[in-house]
């Protein structure tokens, strides 16, 4: 099954690239995976991740030093084959995929001498005479938002793996584990090394759940565990999942707020269909957060009054979501044409990463949140003296940190496909 999907994926990519060859009057496009980079004045390298435009072509992780050459005939993979007794050579992966490629092992850059005349280059600079062709990059980034069935299958698998980790993380938390122990439980269940996760795991217990990109992992077991926020994914052939779950242990006001947020999240997901404006969905989420603040006695202002004063943004300061794919924040989210017209995020929601209308087979995240962030609460008091919020109630909620619920969604014309909820429901 995967072989057939991969073959069709390749056809789609070749079609897209051949349109680009015509558009830019080119004979070939060379895409570099990239080379190893090193810590400053050190002989240890950073973990390697291939440039996504090169990775997109292969059903395995592309190694450093490889190149993809797209021409009008059979595409070519230049495979790094430098002899070096310190390291094990990367073996060329076996499989059906090989039938579609000309595979050239190379121990130098000599292969570039047989390139045709009009060549454009994509990727980090690694060949002396080439630098990235920016308008070609922009052109190809636009198409990347629409995923092929193979890409959706990869994202589905990345999602399935991540849900195993979330399940294990929640179990560890309920047994009193520290953030570090929860993180290790996640890695073990997903069989990932920390350098293989698509982004550093966010594992926040209690107040740490209010730190949007919290990456420290305390080794101290919590004295009084209240909340666990885990934002963590997995990778499959380079494709990333990006999932957040917020877990509570008590049956209290905060747990009711988490439940309210879960209902809001699912309501927003249900509207993520072809033609919907994502900016509009973001506004609806802000209104939904205002409703939750009001219903849970956190802010007595009406939804309308809160929206005028931008109260929800003090509790939900980030965007509703983003495109998902080979990059966690996948390319082209604000790009409205292949030529590169950009529609920026609205002034009052500057962190929204997706302004493009939703289209069939886009894959996106939907990730509303509600946090008690001391810095933003101070800002609210300074900027909106008539904020209408019950500061005592907020004080009592500060130890819980906050809530984020994040699912990975495939856009369709009628009913969106929620990869994350599908995977969670298949656990056990
Ligand atoms: N994990 C990063 C994000 O949710 O966008
Ligand atoms: Mn996330
Ligand atoms: Mn995300």
Report on this structure:
The protein is an alpha+beta fold. The chain folds into two domains: 1-132, Creatine Amidinohydrolase, Chain A, domain 1; 149-426, Creatinase/methionine aminopeptidase superfamily (Creatine Amidinohydrolase, Alpha-Beta Complex), CATH 3.90.230.10. It is 34% helix and 14% strand. The chain has twelve helices and 15 strands. A five-stranded mixed beta sheet has the order 4-3-2-1-5. Helix 4 (149-174) crosses helix 5 (179-190), helix 4 crosses helix 12 (419-425) and helix 6 (253-270) packs antiparallel against helix 7. The two termini are 25 Å apart. The mean pLDDT is 96. Bound molecules: glycine and manganese (II) ion (2 copies).
Order of helices and strands: HEHEEEEHHHEEEEEHHHHEEHHEEEH
The tally of beta strands, per DSSP, is 15
CATH class division of the largest domain = Alpha Beta
CATH homologous superfamily descriptor of the largest domain: Creatinase/methionine aminopeptidase superfamily
Rg of Cα set: 23 Å
Strand content: 5-15%
Q: What kind of sheet is the major sheet? A: 5 strands, mixed
Low-confidence stretches: none
Q: Mind telling me which CATH architecture of the largest domain this is?
A: Alpha-Beta Complex
CATH topology of the largest domain: Creatine Amidinohydrolase
The strands making up the biggest β-sheet line up spatially as 4-3-2-1-5
Distance between the termini: 25 Å
Heterogens: glycine, manganese (II) ion
State the helical fraction: 25-40%
The best one-word shape is globular
| Average pLDDT score | 96
**How many distinct domains?**
2
**Structural class by secondary-structure content:** alpha+beta
